[in-house]
Amino acid sequence: MNKESLIAENGSFDGSSWNWALVWRRPLLLQREIDLAHELQEIIELFQPKVHMEDLWCGGVDEVVMLALRRIWKTKAPRKSMVFAWKLLLHSLPVHQALVRRGVLFIHEDCVFCNNMDEDVTHLFLHCDVASSVWYYVDGWVFHHVYQVLWKVNC
Question: Short name of one Pfam family for this protein (predicted)?
């Protein structure tokens, strides 16, 4: 895949919904390449371009987050854990606040664990007392770097 390609070159709209159709520079021959392409497809399905919006480069993710994102893929953790950590850093997990923003849920509610604050990624993984006790035991594996980066980004 060409890293410099535009979104518009890798899919098309069917009415108002976007269909990804990634363009590869060469045919994918090895099973490993095909598997990685499927994983990439699953990840980018979370991102849906909007009709009538121009492609543009943006720097929404700062250097600290980019460094952590690169480190995630170099760990020896299971791939599902790495994808989870990647989604966590990009704030793309389906927490309550994100589901309301995407129009999946319509009622804004507090955290299901503590009922003290809105359930967003930062609260759920950093500030919720109930969830923090769980993450304390997980810390030191994949989430060690993620936890540190989230703390720096959100403080």
Answer: zf-RVT
